Amino acid sequence: MSVRIIVIGASGQLGKQVARLAAGAAHDVLGWSSRDVDVTDEHAVAAAIEAARPSVVINCAAYTAVDAAESDYRAAAAVNVSGAGNIAAACTRSRAHLIHVSTDYVFPGDAREPYEPGSRVGPRTVYGQTKYAGELAVHAVLPSAHIVRTSWVFTGTGSDFVATMLRLERERDTLRVVDDQWGSPTYSVDLAAGLVELATSRRAGPLSTQQATSTAQEGTILHATNSGITTWWGLAREVFAAAGADPERVQPCSTAEFPRPAPRPASSVLGGESWRAAALRPLRPWRDAVREAVRVAVADPQRMIVSESP
């Protein structure tokens, strides 16, 4: 059955894939970029969603410049907090289900075990703080909304990590990459497929007020990443190997050797139990996803130089 889906942030690396896959599955898809609808404008968002009458809204829009956010809280909060709340409020009025994409940065990054939806939050960056505040804003007005946290998203295009490693492989004999930050790389294509599956599942239909209240705490926060964990160094080595280059050219270094304005979590691994419990298909191992991303990027070099924005 065809579902009318609005994808907000449809010009970004994730939103673009969500819109493409949803349309490919014969759903009625509207993809909105920031040029189409300014999420920080409450009235514009409300009018646009009311006119479109969607069954599901997938919000991929976000201020994701982690370092820049440290000195520009207002800009980050405008999109990540106010924008998220505006979308949720509009979905409430239009009785559309909302899937809101969030991040591993809501956690402090010091856990020895994977973070689950119920784990203690404690964002240490402005980006993480605004994303968590956005989660709270969403659930304050729309408790039934699904919040999907993910991590280390890549496509192999623009300036993402995989595309950057492919470029540096061509430009440098060796390079040093941080080897003391752990996470789960997530291929935007695989995550997008999961979001479309969630959007068209029985769990994502419009709910009555009574149903929304009763399900507010029943699995509305999910974690979705490709399976397995690695460091940025391990990911870089896999990119080199997939491109047919010698992975020994990638040398490990510590976070302390490359200080950044925003502190990076030592471990931001997200557990996948919530995703499996929702009867959604688990995302494949990250190494398989990297190989596909590199294969696609190498086959179409123009993809690697196209810049993308949320």
Automatic annotation (TrEMBL):
- Please verify whether the record's keywords include Oxidoreductase: yes
Q: Which InterPro entries does this UniProt record tie to the protein?
A: dTDP_dehydrorham_reduct, NAD(P)-bd_dom_sf, RmlD-like-bd
Give the originating organism. Lolliginicoccus lacisalsi
Its GO CC terms are: cytosol
* EC assignment: 1.1.1.133
Residues covered by the RmlD-like substrate binding domain:
4-295
Into which family does the record put it? Belongs to the dTDP-4-dehydrorhamnose reductase family.
What is the role of the protein in this entry? Catalyzes the reduction of dTDP-6-deoxy-L-lyxo-4-hexulose to yield dTDP-L-rhamnose.
- Family annotation (Gene3D superfamilies): NAD(P)-binding Rossmann-like Domain, UDP-galactose 4-epimerase, domain 1
**Which PANTHER family does this chain map to?**
DTDP-4-DEHYDRORHAMNOSE REDUCTASE, METHIONINE ADENOSYLTRANSFERASE 2 SUBUNIT BETA
Could you confirm whether the keyword Transmembrane appears in this record?
Answer: no
Q: Which UniProt keywords apply?
A: NADP, Oxidoreductase
A molecular function (GO) held by this record is: dTDP-4-dehydrorhamnose reductase activity
> Its domain of life?
Bacteria
Q: What is the protein name given in its UniProt record?
A: dTDP-4-dehydrorhamnose reductase
GO biological process assignments: dTDP-rhamnose biosynthetic process
